[in-house]
Write a structure and sequence with these properties.
The complex is a heterodimer of chains A (about 250) and B (about 90). By secondary structure, chain A is mainly α. Chain A has helices spanning about 5-25, 35-50, 55-60, 65-85, 105-125, 135-150, 155-160, 165-185, 210-240, 245-250; strands spanning about 90-95, 240. The chains are: A mainly alpha (about 250), B mainly alpha (about 90). Chain B: This is MrpA C-terminal/MbhD domain-containing protein.
Chain lengths: ~250, ~90
Amino acid sequence: MSMRLRLWVLAAGMLGTATLFVLACVELPVFGGTWHPYGDRAVHAALARHTANTIASVNFDQRALDTLGEESILFGSVLGTVVLLRQTRDEQRLPPEPARVAPPVRRYALIALPVTLLIGLYVVAHGQLSPGGGFQGGVVVATSLHLLYIAIDYRALERIRPVGLYEVADAAGEAGYLLLGAAALLTGAAFLTNFLPYGTFNTLSSGGTVPLLNAAIGVEVAAGIVVLLARFLDQAVEIVSGPDDEAEDGT
Amino acid sequence: MAESVPVLIGLVLVAIAGTGAVLVRDPVRQSFVLSLLGLALAALFLLLQAPDVALSQLAVGSALTPLMVLLSVRKVRRKARSERREEHE
């Protein structure tokens, strides 16, 4: 394709996008106004199903299929990373040297670790009540484990991080979401319908399937991010493409 | 008008951090600017009353993505160094 033709294709695409964007925007409510047609309906539906956090209700109840797609994107990306960053035949694994950590850093990281872990689990468990949920809490949980790398060293992190188990947990979280959706089919409702009793408003057990879906996402995201970072850290810290091998071959 | 001032400040901060992330060419420095951009975006989301999104943005945009960029840069540089050494030999 010549440069000229490419520019024409680009111009046509941009013009189309601009037209659609303008058409989509003309009838939108004014920014910062008091008229919220979508918001009012979403809040009404959330309250009817006893979910205090409307965002959680939209994500895991009213539009749970969208969230399934988003979760699957993360699952697929982690899978792709695992395949791409695996150890190849011409690479070898060198155990990292134990690093010296300044005492204040070690103290701070060791205090912050349990606190961060607890906050992560809290955010997952309270997804239906307050801002946050499975994704946000899962990321915080995954981050908290890596404080051990900062506090002690890479070998300490590896000891609490059997990557194989986390890969299983990642798949189990993804499967849990699908199975919860399929469980609705058994009751005669549609896929991913909220079929459990709604519970008392503003308590931990409210929202029907919302807290369970949140937990499934929490497991999937926490395990997925641990696996993702494990592959990146392995490549950066442990795996070297073997110049030593070739030196030993004695050319 | 007065109530939209914080949002405007947030937008300006995001614009500055975003422009910075494009203009900085060194990947290591870029990852730090990216982290600042994540922080500015998280603040903007918070001002727009979207704490759920702000929380994800804070975790992913200002911690996870820059870390992954840094680890990749380290790996690539290490590889380049060992390849240079081989050529030298």
